[in-house]
Amino acid sequence: MFRPQSPLSSLRTAVLVGLFFMFPLSALLAADSEQCLMRYKLTPGEEIRFQVEHLANTKTRLDSTDVASSVRTVSTKVWRVTDVNDEGEMTFEHFIEAVEMSQQNGDSEEILWNSESGEEAPRAFRAVSDQLGKVIATIRINDQGQERERLDDKGTKTDLGMGGITIPLPETPVKIGGRWSVPRQIRVRTQDGEVKMIKVRELYTLEKLSAGVATISVRSEPLTPISTPKIKSQVLQQLSNGTVRFDVDAGRTLSKQLDWDETVVGFDGADSMMEYRARLTETLVTDPTTRTAKRTR
Question: Which residues contact 75 (CB under 8 A, 6 or more apart)?
């Protein structure tokens, strides 16, 4: 027997129908399948600045003796773009403009230095001081961030888990949840003194796309089995785990954060132990007059 709907039921049905037309299924599917093509875009003559902060705390136990050390570095790195060729490959000079550093080992006095203080750098920071304002490397990349040439390299190619100087971008558009990977190798030394190469892949995932900014997670995945604590102790600082924010419209990185929280037991005898806690942050500086942050306690 047919029963007429109550006014409340009719209202509920009308609301549901209205919501369906306000948010049609096609729109939801379109949002789910939205793709993003990410490419570097640099212009000759521009200078791009990043503030980089690296904090690291290490605790090592050897022969029942614990030694703690800490390092803090805040620097302003600069890309001075010199050329973009017909193939779209971009060449820039990479240098460090300013730096603030601190270092402490065990119970020794903390060493501090700020390049803008006008004071001479302590011996421990002399090598860094000598490179300030000088071109560390001239690098040519394609629009995917892949290096095509590197000249006058003075040590920036080493990857200590801090990522390369650019983030490698996928060849094709990706949607949220899409992944791409880049292989690399880590050189270690075994207990017998032999050199061994550990194969690693950097796995990137597009986590979010909002207002033209892509949020990308990065995680290092060792492909070669890490069989001993000694090898693990050499590898852990060279692995990445963090997040990158990339400005799709401007074609450059906005920020990067990588974190480490590792403990290795038995890397040099049964009683040995190493704890490593660190964070690296890198942020695009929009104001060209901005310098390194002042130290706070």
Answer: 51, 52, 96, 97, 98, 99, 100, 292
Q: For residue 286, what are the CA distances in angstroms to 7, 30, 197, 239?
A: 58, 33, 40, 29
In 3D, which of 274, 293, 230 has the Cα closest to residue 56? 274
Element (H, E) at 143: none
The full set of domains in the chain, from first to last, is 36-285 (2.30.230)
C-alpha–C-alpha distance, residues 43 and 38, integer Å: 16
DSSP 16: H
Rg (CA), the chain: 25
pLDDT digits (tens, 9 = 90+) for 235-273: 988 898 999 999 999 999 999 999 999 999 999 988 999
CB 251 within 8 A of CB 39: yes
Which has the closest alpha carbon to 90: 134, 163, 168, 145? 145
Neighbours of 235 (CB within 10 A): 21
Instruction: Please report the sign of the dihedral spanned by the C-alpha atoms of residue 183, residue 80, residue 252, residue 296.
Output: positive
